[in-house]
Each structure stands twice: as C-alpha cells, then as structure tokens.
Design brief:
Monomer. It is built from 13 helices and 24 strands. Helix 4 runs parallel beside helix 6. About 55% of the residues are buried. Bound molecules: shikimate-3-phosphate. Shikimate-3-phosphate binds next to helix 6.
Length: about 425
C-alpha cells in the first residue's frame, strides 16, 4: 500500500462486504495452537501485519506453522515443545503479541528477548511484567521492565490472585496463560470492568477448564491444550469503520457479513442504537465458541450521547471512529473513563482530536476522553496523518468520504496492521 493517499468524497456507499478475521481471535488461535498438542487448522485468519508478527515469533520458538490464503496450520508439540529462540522475538506494532506472549514464555524454561517498533517501545508493560514477576518469572527490560526491549527467563510458576488495576484482556490473558504453568493451583484475575473474553472461550475450545464469573476468570495449573480447528469471525472492530460510514454518508446502505458479535465487543452496536442509527442484526445460529451475525446499516439521523463506565472496554478500539460518528450527530457526545486511549498504538485522545480538528470538527480532549459537538460539516483540503496507527488511518479515510475537497492521508500503510484490504472494500462500496 502507498504511504500517502489522496482521498475524495463519495456520493454514497452501497453493497455487501465480508469483514476480515478478528485480530484478537487470530492471535490467540496461533498462540494456543502453538502450545497445544496436535494440528490446529485456522480458517478466516487475519493476514494483517500484527497477526503475522505472532506467527513469526512462534516459528522462532520451533513451532511448525504453514500460512496459506485458505488455512493456517499450526503443528504444536505442547508447551514442552516450545524451544528457546535463537533470535529476538520481534512483535512489530502488536501489543497483543507482546503481552500474551509474555504470559506464555514466562512459563517456559528458557530465555527470550522481546522487541517491537517505535510505538511498542512507548507502551506500558509493567501491567504484565509485575504480575508475572509475582508468579516467579524473571523479567528485565528498559525502565525496570516497563518498556521493550524485554528479557524474560521463564520456568515453573506459582499461582496468584490478581486484582488488575485496568480492565485489559491482554493483562488477564497473560496471567491466565502463565497460570497454566503452575502446579495444580488456581490462578485468578479480577478486573474493574469485564474485558473481552476471547481467551476464556478459546481455552475451553482447546479443552482447558476455565472458571468465570462477572468480573473474574481463573484456571487451575497443569492443564494441557488439545489441538482443535478454529473459524475466526469477522472483526467487529474492523466492521465498525463501515458501520459508521454507512450511518453518516448520505443515501448509503451496507451489509457486513459474518461479523463476530461477542457481547464483550459489541459496544459499537450499543452506541449506534443509542444514537438512533438504523441497524439490523441478523444473528447466525450460535457458532462453536463465538457468535456471528450479518449486519445491515443505513444512513441515519443521529443524536449525541454519553459513553462511559462498563461500556468503555466493549468499544475501546472503536473510539476513534465513534468520534467521527459524533461529529455527524446532533448535540454533544461525551466520552469518559477512557484514559486507556493514551496508551494505544498512539495517544488516541491526542491523535483523534488533532486530526479531526484539521477537518473542522468541534472536538476537545479531556483527561479521560473527549467531547464532540455536532453536527458539523467536515472540510477537506487538509493533510492528515495516521501517525502509524491503523485505526486513526481508517477513521480519517472514512471522514474523507464526507468532505467536498480531497484529503491527503499520510502514513496510510499503517492500515495493513488490521485491515489489509480496507481500501479495496472502500472502493467496492463507493458509488
Ligand atoms: C486486545 C485487547 C485490548 C484491545 C487490543 C486487543 C486483545 O487491549 O485494545 O486491540 O486482543 O486482548 P487491552 O487489553 O490493553 O485493553
């Protein structure tokens, strides 16, 4: 993909697209397949840069992984089959690879070194380093293990009961995976709000017993994973860009096929409904472990709302595109309790506010979110940037559908991280 793109207004968006596989689930399928015994086949795997970083890291630990367009095959030899990597584990731009893999290598009897790109080097890791140290792993890294590069010496661990200060599926997953490497003891994670539960669901699909209640999840150590086949649902976080586009571009109607609607991820649907969008959800019969639906959206009159509390973890990755949605809603939209935005691929409070302001939006950042006042006619004739953040890039590309003058988008290739055929889909729908 070219790094600079000139984007212009569209008359309407119309048609049907199949959303690419879920990023969170694709990562987990490769990781769990790698520590399971036997052959795991993964279909609808997301061929984005982040998930390919996970593939490359586990190959470096001796796992046989074949990637083809139709299916990714992982031949695992159990946890014991992982080998000490001779090379650095490079996670690229991927926070999920970093944090979940830390939980896995913490329980393996070898040394490994994790490094990533410029953005990863700024993302906080002590939220994982600290609990893993409490379990017995030896971890060092820049600023006492807060940032990459990280060096980890793993081995037999002891269980903990951990009250996580943040609602984070990456933290929860790292601790549960490490918990599998304790001797028959229960490891429990308690969160302030429920985060996405893909790890819990997928561990069960791999034959592990996981206990869950409203805000906690736990596993007993010593359980092993048995290979299984995984169909990855379409990523609702990717679908979100076209859901919003369908709602705000005049005269549009878009059908999105096979979208994952795990209830821990559907905050964007709640927001669209609350704002008054015309949206239809046609749920498929419950799939093996993650629910799926076809979703139809059309242009709608929208009103501003407040988004806060428990809803935030269910839509944390969708906030950039929700901010754009709010510019087209009548009245004020307030987003709060979302300070986690500051430690994503970019500081998403800053990048959303700066780039949408360049397009004429009325938006101001707060300490834990933003306030947007609509409805605003967005203007083009501006140069904006993704700042290397895939979700900022896609949000700006959807904004360009509305502006009379074109927009120049810098660093557009960042979008490859989670949605490599995003522009193909956008031009297919553009009429
Ligand atoms: C993810 C969890 C979320 C999310 C990220 C993917 C995961 O991060 O923002 O894109 O796959 O577990 P946090 O766990 O930091 O909230």
């Amino acid at each position: 993909m070219l790094n600079k793109k000139v984007l212009s207004k569209v008359n309407k968006l119309e048609g049907t697209i199949e959303i690419p596989g879920d990023k969170s689930i694709s990562h987990r399928a490769v990781m769990f397949g790698s520590i399971a015994k036997g052959k795991t086949e993964i279909r609808n795997f997301l061929m984005g840069a982040d998930c390919l970083s996970t593939v490359s890291c586990f190959k470096k630990m001796g796992v046989e992984i074949e990637v083809s367009k139709e299916v990714v095959t992982v031949k695992g030899n159990g946890y014991e089959g992982l080998k000490e990597p001779k090379d650095i584990l490079d996670v690229g731009n991927s926070g999920t690879t970093t944090r979940l893999m830390m939980g896995i290598v913490a329980g393996a009897p070898f040394h490994s070194c994790i490094i990533g790109d410029e953005s990863i080097a700024k993302r906080p890791m002590s939220r994982v380093t600290n609990p893993l140290r409490m379990m017995g792993a030896t971890i060092d890294g820049r600023d006492n293990g807060e940032y990459t590069p990280l060096s980890i010496r793993g081995g037999q661990l002891t269980s903990i009961e951990y009250h996580s200060p943040v609602a984070s599926a990456q933290v929860k997953s790292a601790i549960l995976l490490a918990g599998l490497r304790t001797a028959n003891e229960e490891t429990r994670v308690i969160e302030p709000h429920k985060s996405r539960d893909h790890t819990e669901r997928m561990l069960r699909a791999f034959g592990v017993e996981v206990n869950e209640d409203e805000l906690s999840a736990s596993v007993v150590g010593g359980q092993s994973l048995k290979a299984t086949n995984i169909f990855v649902p379409g990523d609702i976080s990717s679908a979100a860009f076209f859901l919003v586009a369908g709602a705000i571009v005049p005269n549009s109607r878009i059908i999105l096929k096979n979208v994952g609607i795990n209830p821990t991820r559907t905050g964007i649907l709640d927001v669209l409904n609350k704002m008054g969008a015309s949206i239809e959800i046609d749920q498929h019969e419950e799939s093996e472990f993650e629910p799926l639906a076809d979703i139809t959206i059309q242009t709608s009159e929208l009103k501003g709302i407040t988004i806060e509390g428990d809803l935030i973890p269910k839509l944390i990755d969708e906030i950039p595109i929700i901010a754009l949605l709010a510019t087209q809603a009548e009245g004020e939209t307030i987003i709060k309790d979302a300070s986690e935005l500051k430690v994503k691929e970019t500081n998403r409070i800053d990048t959303v506010v700066s780039e949408l302001s360049k397009l004429g939006a009325t938006i101001k950042g707060t300490d834990d979110g933003m306030v947007i006042t609509g409805k605003t006619k967005l203007t083009g004739n501006a140069s904006v940037s993704s700042f290397g953040d895939h979700r900022i890039g896609m949000m700006l590309a959807i904004a360009a559908c509305l502006t009379d003058e074109s927009i120049e988008l810098q660093d557009a290739s960042a979008i490859d991280v989670s949605y490599p055929n995003f522009f193909e889909h956008l031009s297919l729908l553009s009429k």
